[in-house]
Amino acid sequence: MIGNELVATIYEDAEYIGCFRDTLDTLDFDISEKIFDEFDANKCFENCRIKGFLFAGTRSINEVSYLCLCGNKYGAFKKFGNEYCECTCKGNPTTFCGCSFSTYYNRVYRILNRTKSYELLANYIGCFSNLLPSLLISSKSWPSNRLMSKKCSENYNSNYSASFDGSYFMCPNVINLNHTINEANCNKLCSKNSNETCGGSKALTIYSISKNSFSVKCPDLVYVNQSFTCDLRLELINKSFNFSIDFDDGQSIYLSGNKSFANIYKKYLLPRFYTMNIKLLGSNVNLNPQVLVKDELSNNLNGTIILKDDLIEHPQFGEYIGCFVHYVFLNFRKELLITKISTRIPRVCIAECKNQNYTYALIGEDFCICSMKYGSLNAYSDDSCECLCYHSPDSFCGCNAYFLVYKIKNRQKFEITQGIYKGCFDSVHKYNGTYILNYNNNEICLKKCLQLGYKYFSTHNKYYCNCEQNLINETDRIGEDNCQLECPSNQNQTCGGYFGPKSFYEIKSIILSFSALPSHIRKINETVIFKIEINSNNLIYLMTINFGDGTQKNFSMKDFFIMEKTYNQKGLYKIEVYFLNSEFSVELDILSNQKIIGDFILKI
């Protein structure tokens, strides 16, 4: 039978990270190369690795053209399920590529500093009667026994893959060898690979799946002449192992054993960035962990001037309600009074909806909608909306069909969250929460840790966001020249240094309230007392108050400010306080029965 002798080795020379959405011309990677006809993902990985990039991605454009993507960041437009990145790569039958549907999806890999690797062996064991038809899964776009075996291992952690009727498969963990039948019953060619058979109309072609895998954990940062250990963890078909290890300093060793773990001992004599190469002999599996070796800590603390990151201001322009999704086109939601705004910067969207007297602003990846209601929409977790805004890299704008909802009317208080820079620190301190954010910057990390209820945060190695409840030790402070890595999504900010040094911040909140006393109906020439209160964290703020009658006053305040005012004409007056590009206001209706309205209005 055609293809039934196949014993396939399935290997990707990179560490698979996940499936991420992108744009047509890719905004997620630094460079892209279009390749026609034969496309081998492993060659793409090697091409990106030679050029010095950390990550690579693949995407099938159509059946004859593909994209090889290289970059030092990824993931700005949201992670999706693996099923969105399961298009065939014509030149490599053992791996998937990303896909181009109505939206574009990249299959993303780490190609440098890889700490995990595996290969699969798919062994044909026979033709079996189909006794479990309810477990069949359709795979019409990519059926081949190699890819079915890969998916059964990658998505279902199964011991076997079974193909059926040319384009279906299942992933059993146990099979009954007594159910083997004549090979003639497995006569259906795989619909996308005429060199293999994929079962029959009543029969299963079954392969067993075995795996060689290992991982390594090395310290990110060491110092010259400092001894350190890298820990290996092994899951091998053959329990014995033989490794070759190139330390990238002219030294190479071989390591053998028969246990599920091993240790590598090393120290470097010169300061620089080292990329090891650890290869399991007799297989394709290899890793390339990186270690930064420093001569000594820089303690140049004198004369350091902090300009860029000393204070991050994060005003709450609206009251955040949550992340929601729509499954049908929004215009069919009759409860939404829709006004579309061209810009997708959150504060601009909120301002426009406020100016048009709406109660809610709905901010999506490609729309801004003003509404009086949002109740028929479906709530989802906040991380479903964590895609960066195209024109505002410090903010989220929702993802695809997921969008953010803000309440923008009748707010009595205005809250600002601050990230107060404490300095550059070098510590092995273990954080409560560490997140690798490929769109990282200090404001994004601030929002992440604030949302999770932490009091401090730090960034390091560009992509790492650390959340913590306790202040780091002052003895761990080092010179600012150690924290000079530009943040991936905001080059005006620095996100620590390589591995060790961290840009450390304290999270504080400022709440400003504006009130008018007394709260009953006003009369002409009656004295009105305006009171502004703020917990300013010992900072002094400059503000301007516009009394709505053509007069205004500039003032500075630290904790609270009180002023008196009389009006000698009847009418409706809006009293506005200008603060951090915003207006905080109350309305006074002289000689009428209307109530006082506390409100917050964005000033653009």
From TrEMBL:
<keyword id="KW-0812">Transmembrane</keyword>
<keyword id="KW-0472">Membrane</keyword>
<dbReference type="GO" id="GO:0005886">
    <property type="term" value="C:plasma membrane"/>
</dbReference>
<dbReference type="InterPro" id="IPR051836">
    <property type="entry name" value="Kremen_rcpt"/>
</dbReference>
<feature type="domain" description="WSC">
    <location>
        <begin position="13"/>
        <end position="112"/>
    </location>
</feature>
<protein>
    <recommendedName>
        <fullName>WSC domain-containing protein</fullName>
    </recommendedName>
</protein>
<feature type="domain" description="WSC">
    <location>
        <begin position="121"/>
        <end position="210"/>
    </location>
</feature>
<feature type="domain" description="WSC">
    <location>
        <begin position="418"/>
        <end position="508"/>
    </location>
</feature>
<keyword id="KW-1133">Transmembrane helix</keyword>
<dbReference type="InterPro" id="IPR002889">
    <property type="entry name" value="WSC_carb-bd"/>
</dbReference>
<dbReference type="Pfam" id="PF01822">
    <property type="entry name" value="WSC"/>
</dbReference>
<keyword id="KW-0732">Signal</keyword>
<keyword id="KW-0325">Glycoprotein</keyword>
